[in-house]
Amino acid sequence: MANTERRVLLSSSPHFYAPTTARRLMANVLMALAPAAAYGVVLFGLPALFTIATSVAVAVVSEAAFRKAVGEKPRFDDLSAIVTGLLLAMVIPPSTPLWMTALGSMFAIVVAKEFFGGLGANVFNPALIGRAFLLMSFPAALTTWHKPFGALVDATTTATPLNVVKLGGTIADVGKGLADSGLAASAGYGDMLKALVLGNRAGCIGESSILLILAGALFLLVTKTIDWRAPLAMITATFLASLALGMDPVFGIFSGGVMFGAVFMITDYVSAPVTPIGKLIFGACAGLITVMIRKFGGYPEGVTYAILIMNAIAPFLNKIVEKKYGFVAPKKEASK
Amino acid sequence: METKTFKGGIHPPERKEATEGKAIERISTPKQVVVPVNQHFGAPNQSLVKVGDVVKRGQKIADAEGKMTVPVHAPVAGTVKKIEPRTQSNNIDGPCIIIETAASDETDFMSPLDAFSCTKEEAIARIRDAGIVGMGGAGFPVYVKLAPPPNKPINVVIANGAECEPYLTIDEMTMLEDGAKVVEGLAIIMRTVGVKKGIFAIEENKKHAAESIEKVIPSAAHGLDISVVLLKTKYPQGGEKMLITAVTGKEVPSGGLPMDVGCIVQNIGSLKAIAEAFTEGKPLIDRGLTITGGACKTPKNVIVPIGTVIGEIPSEFLDIDRDALRKILFGGPMMGTAVPSLDIPVQKNTSGVTMMNAAEADATEEGPCIRCGRCMRNCSCRLSPVLMNNAIDTGDLEGAAKIGLLDCIECGSCSYVCPARIQLVQRFRVGKQLLRNKRAAASPAPAKA
Fold first, then answer.
1. Is A275 at the interface with chain B, CB within 8 A?
2. Contact call for A328 and B356, based on CB within 8 A
3. Model ipTM?
4. B114-279, superfamily in CATH?
5. How much is the pTM?
6. Is A17 in contact with B416 (Cβ distance < 8 A)?
């Protein structure tokens, strides 16, 4: 009897759990990112591959080193550093010098995540903080774009579709540019959209192929890894805001980082609100701010800062909770 | 029949195959029983016997004055050997009367009472005298539940045939084998309280039990309006609040009771005990329960005398793989209590004992909360577990109460789905106690009995 007693566990109810673990969720995100990442390497060649590898490796090493330095247990099994590293790599240009990538990755993990308390405690999306840091520190490198399919042969710098629009061009100019580079079949609107959706245009490594991003989104929704509210709200808000401000709404949602941000950035659990209504407002405002920055701000793309601004507001959105079971409106006079 | 339900809920694996459909067996009388003096929710009892007394089966051995008290009776005939504190199934030590079983089996029940011709006061008194408490877990004195104040009219009595807790099948088997008694118990409640409608709420996965009850209603319902409602199978469908919402569409107000929405809910075991108290004069001295789990070699549904120590159940009824045994639960895996040994006695609210092996008993360490929000999406009461947890951590207990800490029914859905394996229910239990202490210290009310 004594033997049995020593081996018996004591804990509070419940005594078993659903099979989904934090690690499984992170693994799902990695699987959803993989196709878009792979296509990014196809588009931009070895530089893209090295960028991804550097970012991921530095993220993992920085997390382990920092945690060792401050005396915390190293955390390898939850894959979250790998996710941060990959996300950062996918939102910077493929031609970013590797040392800058490494610096950005280290900043994302150490400053944006570990300084705030590590997994579960960061206020801001670490990958986006990394990108913002790089953009501020090395603006030239972070706005140098290369033609896809040209990396090994002839690294020609070029403008992204959003750049073209920002510098005063029209959608037609975008179409012409893509056709001239051989990325679109013609300068027509339809072919231009096709090029955007397939991802055959200059840009960050991961934000290019809308198709693969949507495939990833489907996977994440089916596996119940992400909640549909924030992504749908963000895309809808971007669409409507673009329309309201006289910009092409379809172009608006297919260009730049809107799709990628809506599926992979705004759905980051830690930096987003937990309440369902909070998530809706979070996504909608991020979409709105994105378009405002595009139209009125100095940057061609607004997703990064839109999401970071909403990260700051997320704690307040957490105050909007659903009415609990048996909710009784508080009376003026405390009768009980 | 269409199925009713409440919005939300989770679907943990049912794991009822081991004991589903197994006829209830009565175990051979144990050599001793350890009868807890207090097995009810309310004020404490005093022992009415001393060491050395000879008692008859059914004799009252503990009682007290006061509204929220329920007597306890001797489950076996024998001699009182000791009266001392022992660990009960809630892991708290309580006074227990230990009786060594005699061969005589002399019985001393009350005389039978016709529930449909006696006065309501006599019926209520009989239910109290039989020592009947809510046998589904809380142990609430049934006779108090059946005497609601006049400003709370009751429109329906609901028999809780949901049995949503995984592993447990005793209610299902009781409905199949003792359907007439269970229906009669419901009829007795309806007559005593003066309620026109009675409903058996049964989960879809027990359709055969529903059909069996329907067959027996015409003969056992004493002409009262009792019908069966099928519920979708999900957890925690059997939680009182969720059950009421599924059957009536109303929600019990926060801080209120089922009577506030005109309902009385009763456990299947309690209904059987009520019927027996009138037809046989029998007090609550034994009960059915399911013994199961991966480390149990003999999964069964059994009837045991109250006070039977788990480890002393004869091995032909309970054979445990001691090497595989990792966790002992009184109850099921969602809301059961883990106990440190097999030396714990069965009491009135024990509906099952689950012997978990290592594969079933997850001992993963807590990780940090990743704010995924699954707990919020799956809370049966639409509370905000992650926010409540944060509030408790920072000491903001009143803030936690505002978002629902005291409304938590501790069903375990949030912890079950948490990918970080955070012990949310444990934290809420602690938080609730801290809040109660804090409020009591802030405004000392006259001490309640």
1. yes
2. no
3. 0.87
4. NADH-ubiquinone oxidoreductase 51kDa subunit (3.40.50.11540)
5. 0.90
6. yes
